[in-house]
Amino acid sequence: MTDFPLHDEATAPEDSKPLLAGSMKQFGMIPGLHATMAEAPGLLASYQFVHEQFANSSFDKDELTVVWQTANVEHACHYCVPAHTGIAKSMKVDDAITDALRNETPLPNAHLEALRNFTLNVVRNRGNVDDDAVQTFLDAGFTKRQILEVVLGVSQKVMSNYTNHLAQTPVDAPFQKFAWQKTA
After folding, report:
1. 184 has a pLDDT exceeding 80
2. 8 Å CB contact between 160 and 17
3. Phi, psi of 142, rounded to the nearest 5 degrees
4. Does the global pTM surpass 0.85?
5. Phi, psi at 78, each rounded to 5°
6. How many other C-beta atoms can be found within 10 angstroms of the C-beta atom of residue 67?
7. Could you say which DSSP state residue 106 is in?
8. Cα separation of 59 and 11, whole Å?
9. Residues of the chain with CATH 1.20.1290.10
10. Distance CA 84, CA 30 (A)
């Protein structure tokens, strides 16, 4: 196993130091994911940018959570599922949504279920989604813009989920109570 350092503002490569300072300012701590990504400043900068773009997309807080957690669960990310459980709580997302996503059980409404199904289609088929699945998504009330915004959200999660798999990033203390493991 390759041992990845968890950088702080003192140990990070020079180009990552201001990025970690921004993380500290925004979160009051340097999340382990950011500390790990700091080894590659371009990755951390890109991740932070893509996160901001997706958070400011046309999706509401419930829909953002569905895209994030659907990818996290599908990728079996030991770090991001607990982190996004805590983030969803801070965003005041209904626990029923979070629990359904974590447990891969039906979501509370058809609209969110359509978003989860489309996101799974994008992830599992690497963007090769058939016309029927696209039409089903559109028929559920989503837009062509949101098709592409799912790609944006999945892109963010690929960066974080893959980093966490490779680095075995430890779950941050505030999120350890939301520990998660994919069911068989």
Report:
1. no
2. no
3. -90, 170
4. yes
5. -60, -25
6. 28
7. -
8. 36
9. 59-178
10. 15
